[in-house]
Design a protein that fits this description.
By secondary structure, this protein is an all-alpha fold.
Length: 464
């Protein structure tokens, strides 16, 4: 093909000029939507339709269980993604989720579904998703042309919020209309469609060879501990966001409880609030790069604004005001994600990204089960309005700590010496305003799996 003929092809949309990536991305959207739909729908079933008075704690336990795989299996996930064929791992994850949803559909349709079965299903579905997401993200170099690696990575991360938004909108509505059996059937359809799409995806030759195509032997990578020891400032940022997550992720427990006890709404109300949160996150992910200031300062400011927004439902019990507050909250989450995704992409060497982002997933995700259990328990003893105020107050120390982080270049301390076969020590560059696109010094560098394209996760959205 001549150079002149290639120009129009480059102008075609990313998913059209990279058909295999488009199909794999569509599969991810379907699986993420199914997982989010199940979480929201099952939580609303427990809070809005529970006969007893412990619906809040039960919903908190469900959300906590949904986070366990990504946290507990982080090292295993990192090894599996690095060593397995993406084709096999993605198909196995989608097929496993389909089988789980099918079994749940039959069980719920033929009799009462015990609470333990609901928890087991949540655990199985999120385990499949915990392997699926990082595998697809690290497979981008073998699904698209070299020139499209950065664009594909940014496209995937930015559009994950769409999946969460769609799933959140449908979850509570489906439960109100068709119960748990209907919810499981819709999830089964989403997972099954994703598995079918994956059978048509062709990975390039490097995918069958095992490790991701960065040209580095697995033995040359640092361990999880060595990676964080070489990046002390990044480690401090992660701890700030982990502390913030303890209060922000509680929104997934507080929201249905607030709807049931304060607004006296139904599944449509839950869907509206979820949509506000998701829409704000989506807008923030596309506009966050325009926020001025150093990432730590901008992040601290966003946490402060988010605290004020989360406090509003504690004082005003009007649906429009609460929807607006969640819209602002979501925007802050999306804006923070854009700034810190770019920062981490610059600070973390390509060889260390599998280990680093496995650690990041575990550190940020570990707070979610604690938050779910804590706020679920408090929800059975305190009013939903009080919980909103607790959330807002809890963000203040995290915002202050992030604001006070040192600025400027600083050589890593405490473990800067690399492993015998590892890369050279890392010097952290000064923080500069993040561009909208994901920077990379090599077109085939491994893109990062960054939890949180979903609202409530920092620095950007993985799903609980």
């Amino acid at each position: 093909m001549s150079a002149a003929a290639a120009v129009p092809d480059r102008r075609r949309p990313l998913v059209l000029r990279n058909h295999d990536f488009g199909k794999a991305w569509a599969s991810q959207v379907l699986t993420q939507a199914g997982a989010r739909m199940f979480q929201v729908g099952a939580s609303w079933q427990l809070v809005g339709h529970a006969a007893g008075g412990d619906g809040s704690l039960s919903a908190g336990l469900l959300m906590a269980v949904s986070t366990v795989p990504a946290v507990a299996l982080a090292p295993l996930i990192a090894r599996a993604v690095a060593r397995s064929s993406p084709r096999s791992l993605l198909r196995a994850a989608a097929a496993g989720a389909t089988a789980t949803a099918a079994l749940l559909t039959v069980w719920a349709a033929t009799g009462d579904l015990p609470l333990g079965a609901l928890y087991a299903a949540a655990l199985a579905l999120t385990t499949c998703q915990a392997f699926f997401d990082p595998c697809l993200t690290t497979s981008v170099p073998v699904l698209v042309d070299d020139a499209d690696v950065e664009a594909a990575t940014g496209f995937e991360l930015s559009t994950q919020s769409l999946a969460g938004l769609g799933g959140a909108l449908l979850g509570a509505l489906v439960v109100d209309l068709a119960g748990l059996a209907g919810l499981a059937a819709v999830c089964m359809t989403a997972y099954g469609t994703a598995a079918t799409l994956l059978t048509t995806v062709r990975f390039r030759t490097t995918a069958a060879d095992g490790p991701a195509a960065d040209g580095l032997d697995a033995g040359a990578r640092r361990t999880l501990r060595q990676t964080l020891a070489a990046l002390p400032r990044v480690r401090a940022i992660l701890l700030c966001f982990a502390a913030a997550n303890l209060f922000t992720t509680a929104v997934f427990v507080v929201m249905p409880l607030y709807t049931a006890t304060v607004l006296h709404g139904d599944g449509a109300t839950v869907s509206l609030l979820e949509a506000s949160l998701g829409a704000g996150t989506l807008v923030g992910s596309f506009t966050g790069a325009r926020v001025l200031g150093r990432p730590t300062v901008a992040g601290a400011a966003c946490l402060g604004v988010m605290g004020a927004a989360l406090a509003l439902p504690g004082f005003v019990a009007a649906l429009p005001a609460i929807a607006g507050a969640l819209l602002v909250t979501g925007w802050c989450v999306g804006a923070i994600g854009v700034r810190f995704v770019a920062l981490f992409q610059r600070l973390v060497p390509a060889a260390d990204k599998p280990a680093f982002f496995a650690v990041m997933q575990a550190v940020l995700g570990a707070t979610f089960p604690v938050a779910s259990l804590l706020f679920g328990l408090l929800g059975d003893h305190l009013s939903a309005r009080t919980l909103c105020l607790i959330q807002a107050a809890g963000l203040a120390p995290a915002a202050l700590a992030l604001f006070l982080l040192p600025v400027g270049s600083r050589r890593a301390r405490g473990g800067t010496a690399p492993a015998p076969t590892g890369p050279a020590p890392v010097t952290e560059p000064p923080e500069v305003p993040a561009p909208a696109a994901q920077p990379s010094s090599h077109p085939a560098a491994e893109p990062a799996h960054l939890p949180g394209a979903e609202p409530g996760y920092f620095p950007t959205a993985g799903r609980p």
